[in-house]
Amino acid sequence: METEEIEAPKKKVPLAMVTIRPAKLFDIPYIMRIEQMSFKEAYPRGLFLTFLEANPDTFLVAEYNGKIVGYVMGYLRPDMEGHIMSIAVHPDYRGNGIGKALMIAVIKKLFEKGARWIGLEVRVSNYRAINLYKKLGFKIVKRIISYYSDGEDAYYMILRPEDFERVILS
Ligand SMILES: CC(C)(COP(=O)(O)OP(=O)(O)OC[C@H]1O[C@@H](n2cnc3c(N)ncnc32)[C@H](O)[C@@H]1OP(=O)(O)O)[C@@H](O)C(=O)NCCC(=O)NCCS
């Protein structure tokens, strides 16, 4: 895995001033702007609307000073895996602990709803996200060849409840 010095955030934000709450319909344009700034291939608006309708309590946003600065989309699969579909923090607000706070909130919610474990896919080159997931207790369980449309491989990572508890209590 690539490693790099963690850069200072462009905008320093006290985490105590950040509210994590369920996403609402009126948040979608702001969520989409962060999505477009964060990924090469952004999801279309319809996908966010459908996802919000189906998973209103595990689609969360981070709000600071009345502004949406990040979001996370989680859902419970039929096999009871809690799956993280997407997470992103506005580029100016990264490095403040907002991504970690969003992940902790959605993971807790998914376990409350009966998830047996939490799973996600991440680009093998995305060391920032991989670092974040490892810090929360996720482990790489397999590499999925050419998972992304540009041919890049993904790591499939999972978090067991006992590993999450250990991380949260430490
Ligand atoms: C991944 C992402 C959500 C992290 O959000 P963030 O708010 O910047 O993350 P946090 O400030 O909560 O940092 C949490 C951990 O992530 C890792 N991390 C964050 N920024 C990092 C960086 N620049 N370099 C290396 N690790 C980094 C660290 O392990 C950090 O823990 P620490 O602060 O205790 O050292 C954000 O970088 C992002 O939006 N990236 C673009 C979208 C994306 O790649 N999403 C994931 C798709 S699978």
UniProtKB/TrEMBL annotation:
Q: Where is the signal peptide?
A: none
Keyword list (alphabetical) reads:
Acyltransferase, Ribonucleoprotein, Ribosomal protein, Transferase
Q: Does the keyword Ribonucleoprotein apply?
A: yes
Q: Does the keyword Hydrolase apply?
A: no
Cellular component per GO?
NatA complex; ribosome
- Determine the domain of life of the protein's source: Archaea
State what protein this is by name: Ribosomal protein s18 alanine acetyltransferase
Instruction: Return the CDD domains for the record.
Output: NAT_SF
GO molecular function terms here?
A: protein-N-terminal amino-acid acetyltransferase activity
Which Gene3D superfamilies does this entry report, sorted A to Z? 3.40.630.30
Q: Which residues form the N-acetyltransferase domain?
A: 18-162
Q: Name one Pfam family in it.
A: Acetyltransf_1
**Sorted alphabetically, which NCBIfam families does this protein's record hold?**
rimI
